[in-house]
Design brief:
Helix content is 54%, strand content 15%. The chain has a 6-stranded parallel beta sheet, sandwiched between helices. It has a two-stranded antiparallel ribbon with strand order 1-2. Helix 1 (21-33) runs parallel beside helix 5 (90-104), helix 2 crosses helix 3 (55-62) and helix 4 packs parallel to helix 13 (232-251). The two termini are 31 Å apart. The chain contains 13 helices and 8 strands. With 252 residues, it is α/β, with parallel strands linked by helices.
Length: 252
């Protein structure tokens, strides 16, 4: 990353930037001030697993300009490798970025979620951040033909930061196709963040967030998430352990 010394660590083939929350934010702030484009990925174990199964998605992840560790799964994987890395939650990171945009006059766009969700999220953000300039709002329900129209609209309007809430891998693949046409835009895939910003989904209590157990709170509240986490997370960590042991054997 320009302006900051980048430290990276591979996790099952995908490099993660070892920045603190504030360092990662400074990285993006620098890109804003320098009129640079950037693709930010908030990576988690599910994305790494999918990236190793889907070559196109894997390529997009590897081409990202900033890959921040979003979630306890990546924190644990890095811990196995002897690295004590703080989690950089995508929803919090994006909110701080919106605050910078409001303060310094950068335009933003919101793409994704249901129509009522994205509109409510936009309204809440405008209420929270004085002078926030949202120049593009669009729900995430569109076909291939409409996607071409959306790309044209975005290219013309060119918000300085575009928050894409289409879910992974769709949001990352969408950004990859659009990035070359928008050389001054910062892109970040934000998953379910619009649901939080709209007030339709409540965050875990702060104590859970600080302990890195927000995933556990959400799983208790939404038992359907259990299948996504188990056995996927334990298997992911087992793979990381095996990879780490193999690396140490090679280095011995």
């Amino acid at each position: 990353m320009e302006g900051l010394q980048s430290k990276k660590e591979p996790v099952l083939g995908f490099e993660v930037d070892l920045f603190t929350f504030e360092e990662a934010l400074q990285c993006v702030h620098n890109a804003l001030k320098e009129n640079r484009s950037m693709h930010i990925v908030t990576i988690n174990p599910e994305m790494i697993t999918n990236g190793n199964k889907n070559d196109e998605f894997g390529r997009v992840l590897n081409e990202a300009d900033l890959t921040i560790p979003d979630g306890v799964g990546i924190k644990l994987a890095l811990k196995v490798k002897g690295i004590n890395q703080e989690v950089v939650p995508g929803v919090d990171f994006s909110k701080r970025l919106i605050g910078i945009c409001a303060l310094e006059g950068y335009t933003i766009g919101l793409l994704g979620a249901k129509e009522e969700i994205v509109q409510k999220a936009a309204a809440n953000l405008r209420n929270e951040f004085e002078n926030l300039n949202i120049t593009y709002i669009r729900n995430g329900y569109f076909d291939e033909q409409q996607e071409d129209i959306i790309r044209g609209e975005l290219t013309e309007i060119a918000p300085r930061v575009l928050f894409v809430a289409l879910g992974s891998p769709k949001q990352e693949l969408f950004i990859s196709k659009l990035k070359q046409k928008m050389p001054r835009t910062i892109f970040i895939g934000v998953g379910g963040s619009f649901d939080v910003w709209s007030g339709c989904v409540k965050r875990a209590p702060e104590i859970y967030q600080k302990m890195g157990l927000e995933w556990l709170y959400r799983t208790v509240k939404e038992p359907s998430r259990f299948k996504r986490i188990f056995p996927a997370l334990p298997l992911f960590l087992i793979q990381v352990i095996i990879e780490t042991i193999q690396q140490k054997i090679k280095q011995a």
